[in-house]
Design a protein that fits this description.
Elements (H helix, E strand, L loop, with lengths): L1 E5 L4 H12 L3 E6 L3 H8 L6 E4 L5 H8 L4 E4 L7 H4 L1 H20 L6 E7 L24 H14 L5 E6 L22 E3 L3 H10 L10 E5 L6 E3 H11 L23 H7 L6 H10 L8 H13 L3 H6 L2
Parallel strand pairs: 1-2, 1-4, 2-3, 4-5, 5-6, 6-8
Antiparallel strand pairs: 7-9
């Protein structure tokens, strides 16, 4: 199948390109021509067609969509950048989705459209019994979730054969720099993770099922082996990186917008859940390589630098 993938060199996008190729699809990748994206594209060589462009430009995405049988729309600006630059995020997340829909509708034979959304749409739900179900009411709480709610409605009104995936958290399988946003999630928050390779498998397996593209929304998460508290999730990743748990007073106690998901239907249809959270931990720990030998030496400094990002920790030390 001829497939256009937006956001092709992001976290989910890169895994999706690999899975599309593995399953024998013809891939047209659309993304911004940043140095990091160009480097990622070179790794695929001539196995994919790359179209560089900005999703905010209607003509660029219209040309990219020409002749495609399916469009997998993964491009988005997510937190924390969506909080720091909400106007830019809206242009990409909402106006960009509108451009994608218009590009699909302009084709002589409109392609199927898959839209990547988020489980953050349900708002703070710690006071409710889990799991969240696809027909639970949504409660957007920040620019990103407001954008996703609006973009979902654009897709629903598109007249195209569409499918919406609301994804759980997909951690980057990498050694990441700390950011203050990590302290804005309460440690007791229910948190479901998903290996990005499994998210990609769900996306690509959907292409095998034309009967799914009939105005349907599915929840995509890692399943029971990936359902944790935020404490277990974050401290588990910090352990994998040799940092260890951080003081609990460094974290907010406010409710947050994640929860466990009912993925029974999506797993039955798409058979994508392969990795556990322990697998994610092991993959990240393996990336340390030789650095694992020096982590005991630099661990105190790394912890001090991370804790300096927490306004709650600074307040507790006064």
């Amino acid at each position: 199948m001829k497939v256009l993938l937006t956001g092709a060199f992001g976290n989910l996008g890169g895994h999706t390109v690999r899975e599309l190729l593995r399953q024998g699809h013809t891939v047209r990748a659309f993304d911004l021509p940043t140095p990091a994206n160009r480097k990622a594209a070179r790794a695929f060589g001539d196995r994919i067609e790359v179209v560089w462009g900005d999703i905010r430009e209607a003509d660029a995405i219209r040309q990219a969509a020409a002749g495609q049988e399916a469009v997998l729309h993964l491009a988005a600006i997510i937190p924390p950048m969506s909080d720091e630059k909400p106007d830019l995020a809206r242009q990409v997340n909402v106006d960009g989705t509108r451009n994608v829909v218009a590009a699909c509708r302009a084709q002589p034979t409109p392609p199927r459209l898959l839209f990547a959304s988020t489980f953050d749409l349900y708002g703070p739900t710690l006071h409710l019994d889990p799991p969240r179900r696809v027909d639970d009411p949504i409660h957007p709480t920040d620019p990103y979730t407001h954008h996703k709610a609006e973009a979902e409605e654009i897709v629903r009104q598109s007249g195209l054969p569409w499918l919406i995936f609301r994804f759980s958290d997909m951690p980057l399988i990498a050694l990441r720099e700390a950011h203050p946003i990590m302290y804005e999630i309460g440690l007791d928050t229910r948190f479901e993770t998903l290996h990005p390779a499994d998210g990609a498998l769900a996306v690509v397996n959907a292409l095998r099922h034309p009967d799914l593209w009939t105005e349907r929304t599915l929840l995509i998460g890692g399943g029971p082996a990936c359902q944790l508290t935020y404490r277990e999730f974050l401290f588990g990743l910090l352990e994998a990186m040799g940092i260890g748990p951080l003081p609990e007073e460094a974290f907010t106690t406010r409710p947050y917008v994640t929860d466990w998901l009912d993925t029974e239907e999506s797993q039955r249809l798409l058979r994508y859940q392969r990795h556990t959270f322990a697998d994610i931990q092991r993959e990240i720990a393996a990336l340390l390589g030789w650095r694992r030998f020096i982590m005991p030496l630099i661990r105190p400094l790394a912890r001090r630098q991370m804790l300096a990002l927490s306004p709650y920790y600074r307040r507790s030390r006064r």
